[in-house]
Recover the amino acids of this structure.
């Protein structure tokens, strides 16, 4: 299916990464390892952080100005979802017309709607992406060249997207080791509300409900169930806000199911409870 | 704090384990490794399973009859919580008056109330225990001699328990590597409702809400959050049923917090959302 990851000729001249944190840094590390680009430029807001990423060997050059990205033919915006649109537009101003811009954000509908004029553009075109990889850790210091290996990356072209551009973006993620699937931006957001955004909210609600007396008796089950609640609130608040409608729908469904559990306990109905637990186990086992 | 785990003289003559599954098998493996007993007898319901545990070197002898346990001076009942009381009583009938019986069940109040007449008995005495260790795996085949190493074990003496017996049970768990804490049966159940039983119910509700289209896009966050939903419904339905009152209370608190999240989304109040996520992160980070 996928082409060889490494060829004698780098696929890109200059690759630009806007936002050199865990995801941006890992893209740089993976691109470096697979020799995908001649040069990697990082765009960020803090000089000292960019200098650190250069020193760590992740990027060749770091700048707080998008002007440094002008000669790139591929750009990935890895900033928090509430900054993606501005950052894509700033890059689109300086990049050449045949350049492509994608992102790595956890929401797609608002971003793709807001950037609709760039999706089918003759100038630099934008196509949304979301690699399903990451961790609760933050910062380029935790970069991992294998972060995307065998992980799903959702690419979300719109009706306006030129198929050839979609293929180029998909190949970029495959080159980093990912398995690419296509969804519309709306489909992406509905599904991710159930598989990622609601679980984050629920993990946070469970962690937030813990009482001081509980700490000593919180074992591995609790730790696993609430691990993602350690994620950066500055990243997650905008994700939940941008996908508020779908998250609320998913929460409504979950509350309905929690009521079924509560009813089985209230009415001392072990067979109803057993059935609910069996259905859950079947679904969970199905994930492998 | 703890005495040396291994002495030249085994601490027990015969150690009895009723229910040789993951927990019972791991107790046997740990006791074997630390040479705590001269002989380990397994009591179970299925001859072939017991024969398998003998063959695996976990127990010296397996029997479907408690009569085989008659000469033991220490017994651990590792059966599902809805069978513990019957199994403790059956053992108490055959064991000598100075023998001790404990268990490894996830609920304590109903069990300790039901067995109150054995808690301060002159005959074989019962003291409740709950090692906070385990996994979603089942069966003695997954036994692990290090399962209890550095894990918390809650011991729940009642007012009627003789302090010397409490010390003996606590030393047993310490000998297996566990860190022992004391709680009343009621305190145990209230805390475990929040740290274990409700998280299980919530993980099951999340897993049960998954739609077929979601499977491909369920990444590590979803997997972690729902891992415990793969646990055996036959074990978990009785746990939730026995602790129904505390679980319902904990669920009520959680639903209140979920409403706060929903309100912040509904009213597009990012600062309220951010505050909820920050509180959750602080609590989760506090677990280390």
């Amino acid at each position: 299916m996928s082409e060889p990851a490494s060829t004698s000729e780098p696929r890109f001249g200059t690759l630009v990464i806007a936002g050199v944190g865990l995801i941006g840094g890992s893209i740089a590390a993976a691109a470096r390892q697979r020799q995908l680009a001649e040069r990697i430029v990082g765009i960020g807001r803090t000089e000292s952080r960019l200098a650190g990423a250069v020193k760590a060997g992740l990027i060749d050059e770091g700048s707080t100005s998008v002007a440094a990205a002008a000669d790139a033919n591929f750009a990935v915006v890895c900033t928090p979802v509430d900054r993606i649109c501005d950052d894509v537009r700033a890059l689109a101003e300086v990049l050449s017309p045949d350049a492509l811009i994608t992102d790595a954000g956890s929401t797609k509908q608002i971003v793709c709607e807001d950037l609709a004029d760039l999706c089918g553009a003759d100038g630099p075109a934008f196509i949304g992406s979301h690699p399903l990889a990451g961790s609760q850790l933050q910062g380029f210091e935790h970069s991992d060249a294998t972060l995307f290996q065998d992980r799903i990356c959702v690419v979300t072209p719109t009706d306006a997207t030129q198929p050839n551009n979609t293929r180029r973006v998909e190949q970029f993620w495959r080159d980093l080791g990912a398995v690419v699937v296509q969804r519309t931006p709306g489909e992406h957001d509905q599904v991710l509300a159930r598989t990622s955004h609601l679980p984050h909210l629920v993990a946070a609600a469970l962690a937030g409900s813990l009482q001081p007396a509980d700490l000593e008796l919180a074992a591995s089950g609790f730790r696993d169930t609430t691990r993602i609640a350690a994620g950066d609130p500055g990243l997650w608040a905008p994700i939940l806000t941008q996908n508020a409608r779908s998250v609320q729908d998913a929460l409504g469904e979950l509350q309905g199911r929690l009521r079924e559990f509560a009813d089985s306990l209230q009415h001392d109905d072990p067979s109803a409870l057993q059935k609910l637990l069996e259905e859950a186990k079947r679904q969970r086992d199905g994930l492998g």
Summary: The radius of gyration of chain B is 21 Å. The beta strands of chain B are 12-18, 37-43, 61-63, 74-77, 100-103, 125-131, 152-156, 179-182. Residues 1-7 of chain B have pLDDT under 50 and may be disordered.
